[in-house]
Amino acid sequence: MNKTFKYYWEDFPVGTIHESGDVTLTQEEIVRFARQFDPQPFHVDEAAAADSVFGGIIASGWHTCSLAMRMMCDSYLLDTASQGSPGVENIKWLKPVRPGDTLHLTMEVLETRVLESKPTLGLVRSRWRMFNQNNESVMTMEGYGMFRRRPAT
Predict the structure, then answer these.
(1) Is the pTM higher than 0.85?
(2) pLDDT digits (tens, 9 = 90+) for 113-148
(3) Fold of the domain built from segment(s) 9-148
(4) What CA–CA distance (Å, rounded) separates 114 from 6?
(5) Within a 10 A sphere around the Cβ of 114, how many other Cβ atoms?
(6) 87: left (phi over 0), alpha (psi -120 to 50) or beta
């Protein structure tokens, strides 16, 4: 398959910033995700959450990460020659995400290099930052993406 992509490794120079659209979370979405993947009481039970240090239902950090992944896909990743990721180095959940919060994601390219073992691929190290509607940072993560290099013309 010789598909042409909008973005290749060369399109991610250091300093590049991609921004996502917004997503607003409902309590039902938070609870549904948590029941399936992270059923701690402060994610699924209103009374227990009210009695927790959070004072109410909050989204699982893993839900926030999943939303970040979806936002990346919708804003740029599905248009790239992505070859997956060898991993994430850091994830920090900085502020609880609550029902009604509207989230926005930015991705900044920190470093790039061609893979010595596979010179047709380039590695991109990025930092993603998730903000709520008050522009408060709720999550950061740093990690890598592998992208095909642009074919010679």
Answers:
(1) yes
(2) 999 999 999 999 999 999 999 999 999 999 999 999
(3) Thiol Ester Dehydrase; Chain A (3.10.129)
(4) 19
(5) 13
(6) left
